[in-house]
Automatic annotation (TrEMBL):
Residues 2-106 form the FAD-binding FR-type domain. It comes from Tenacibaculum geojense. The keyword Flavoprotein applies. This is 2Fe-2S iron-sulfur cluster-binding protein. The lineage of its organism: Bacteria, Pseudomonadati, Bacteroidota, Flavobacteriia, Flavobacteriales. Residues 258-348 form the 2Fe-2S ferredoxin-type domain.
Length: 348
């Protein structure tokens, strides 16, 4: 079960025309609960128009800052993002889960990190940048950050200030798709841009780890290009905005029913569900307080383990091959494919 804590909003900062940062007031009694690693996210919960809405947002503050801060960018028809960018104000209260997520960076001495981010994909990366610059004087961080224009660039002034402060440690590069600037590259982050930075501008730097955050197409392109340049697969870490559908998995989802047993908070519940339904949705309809956040297959809040039977996921960019072999699933994307299924939310 996800545990949520009511936190007051300390400040709402207008970052761009359609993006804000939210700083929470974390009481001393909850400081330990909200300790986080650079790159992790929190889930925000709010009742909007008489409906509970949950959304996951990456923490953009430094783990050493004693500050819990996220950034929210408005998306078309986005219920929570519209509320956050237009209505939310200081002293309002939101329910907030403890930090989680596996897209993390623990700074190490003498390491060279590089990140490719687009739009609001900067949020977890900014936390990583600050963590490295603040704690490891012998480490470097190189950022390639894509946006439409300066006006659309979240944390533009903050990033420039970091560059001015950590001149020898922080390499900052902008890519703008709708605006030409003398100190930026024009276009979208693609193969040619990755090669330009890795093989030319920073050819003398041996990068240890790459962090990618943004649209799936960008991540796939950057991953393939870095691999072609000798980066090992295990040294390329990414987090997606959205995940694409696995059509082969969709074809395995059939009409029919399954008897499913769910272990949650040391209690077993058994019910029948349609195989065309997701395990998470069916669990919630049966009044189980199953953990979830994005419901889009791009976070790991709803992870569970299949201990009997089989299930197939129509989206997955989070779980590794090893985790899949161990039976782990994202329940928001998983459908039963056997008549009986046992799922354990506790053994994760």
């Amino acid at each position: 079960m996800s545990t949520f804590y009511k936190l007051k909003v300390k400040e709402v900062i207008k970052e761009t025309l359609n993006a804000v940062s939210i700083i929470f007031d974390v009481p001393a009694a909850l400081k330990e609960e909200f300790t986080f690693l650079a790159g992790q996210y929190i889930t925000l919960k709010k009742e909007i128009n008489n409906k509970e809405v949950r959304r996951a947002y990456s923490i953009c503050s430094s783990p050493n800052s004693n500050e819990l801060k996220v950034s929210v960018k408005a998306v078309e028809n986005g219920v929570f993002s519209t509320y956050a960018t237009k209505e939310l104000k200081a002293n309002d209260e939101l329910e907030v889960s403890k930090p989680e997520g596996k897209f993390v960076l623990t700074p190490q001495a003498n390491k060279n990190y590089i990140a490719f981010a687009a739009g609001s994909g900067i949020t977890p990366v900014l936390s990583m940048i600050k963590a490295v610059l603040e704690t490891e004087k012998t480490a470097t961080f190189t950022l390639v950050y894509g946006n439409k224009s300066i006006a659309d660039t979240i944390f533009y002034n903050e990033l420039n200030a970091l560059k001015n402060t950590f001149t020898s440690q922080f390499n900052l590069n902008y890519v703008f798709s709708r605006e030409k600037q003398d100190d930026a590259v024009f276009g979208r982050i693609d193969t040619s841009h990755v090669n330009y930075f890795v093989k030319n501008i920073y050819k003398d730097i041996s990068f240890d780890t790459a962090f990618l955050c943004g649209p799936e197409a960008m991540i796939n392109t950057v991953t393939n290009t870095l691999s072609d340049n000798g980066f090992a697969k295990e040294n390329i870490l990414f987090e997606l905005f959205t995940a694409s559908i696995d059509e082969d998995a969709v074809a395995q989802v059939k009409e029919g029913e399954s008897e499913i047993t769910v272990l949650l908070d040391d209690e077993e519940t058994t019910f029948s569900m349609k195989q065309t339904d997701t395990i998470l949705a069916a669990s919630l309809r049966n009044k189980l307080d199953a953990p979830y956040s994005c419901q889009g297959g791009v976070c790991s809040s709803c992870i569970a383990k299949v201990t009997e039977g089989k299930a197939v996921m129509v989206k997955n960019q989070i779980l590794t091959d090893g985790e899949l072999e161990d039976g782990f699933i994202l329940t928001c994307q998983a459908h039963p494919t056997t008549s009986k299924l046992v799922v354990d939310f506790d053994d994760v």
